[in-house]
Amino acid sequence: MSKKSKPVRFDATVNPSVDHTLAIAEGSHLNNLAQRLMGLGRYEEAEPLHKQAIEVKERGLGKDHITTALSYNALGETYIELGRLDEAEIFLQKALDIRQASTRSIDDIDAAVTRENLGVVYEMRGDLPRARQMRRVGAPDNMLCAYNKCELYKVKRRNLLQCGGCKSIYYCGAGCQSKDWKRHKKYCKRDASKQAA
Ligand SMILES: [Zn+2]
Ligand SMILES: [Zn+2]
């Protein structure tokens, strides 16, 4: 048979591969759908969509791509809401490794978001010293208010106030602290920071 009858393959060095294009388009589509479900509190339905997004992104972009990290972080947030902390930690750690390795300053804040998510995982496990340590990695410039509905949640903050009880969680002010108290009070233990090595 003539070689001419073979289909022409994409040359990845010249054209972006099909997988790459699919990863960007399909990956962000799946991510948007999943985020919408999360906004409605439908975390069980969001989980498989985040996993599908991760699959196409890993195939098309790679396991260490910053766009793949976005889905690792989002799946981690989903597992926090589902109380599946071990799985949350695995995906958040993957996201953190990529985001912290990035040299783009735009990724600093996303790294801080992932550190705050990991802080919540450790907090929910009752490991407040570890939560504190993780949250303070970006101190003093790259920390976040821990109240996840804070208007300034994705803004780098300085001079955050720490919880006077456990000294393991940080807020932009008393307003955010009191709004997060309903969630945090289950985990807040006085002087937990003294357990830190
Ligand atoms: Zn705040
Ligand atoms: Zn506290």
List the helices and strands in order. HHHHHHEEH
Number of strands: 2
Distinct small molecules: zinc ion
Shape: globular
The largest sheet has its strands arranged as 1-2
The tally of helices reads 7
Mean pLDDT: 88
Share of residues in helices: 55-70%
- How big a fraction of the residues is strand? under 5%
- Termini separation comes to 72 Å
Task: Using the CA coordinates, give the radius of gyration.
Answer: 20 Å
Stretches where pLDDT is under 50 for at least 5 consecutive residues are: 10-14
Q: Give the helix/strand class.
A: mainly alpha
Report the major sheet. Answer: 2 strands, antiparallel
Description:
Helix 1 (18-39) packs antiparallel against helix 2 (43-60). A hairpin with a 7-residue loop joins strand 1 and strand 2. It contains 7 helices and 2 strands. The model is unreliable at 10-14 (pLDDT under 50). It has a two-stranded antiparallel sheet. It has helices at 18-39, 43-60, 66-81, 85-101, 108-124, 128-135, 174-184, and strands at 161-162, 170-171. It is mainly alpha-helical and 197 residues long. The chain binds zinc ion (2 copies).
List the helices and strands and how they pair.
Layout: H1 18-39, H2 43-60, H3 66-81, H4 85-101, H5 108-124, H6 128-135, E1 161-162, E2 170-171, H7 174-184
Antiparallel strand pairs: 1-2
The protein binds zinc ion (2 copies).
One zinc ion binds next to loops.
Describe this structure in a few short sentences.
The chain has 197 residues and is mainly α. It contains seven helices and two strands; from the N terminus they run ααααααββα. Bound molecules: zinc ion (2 copies).
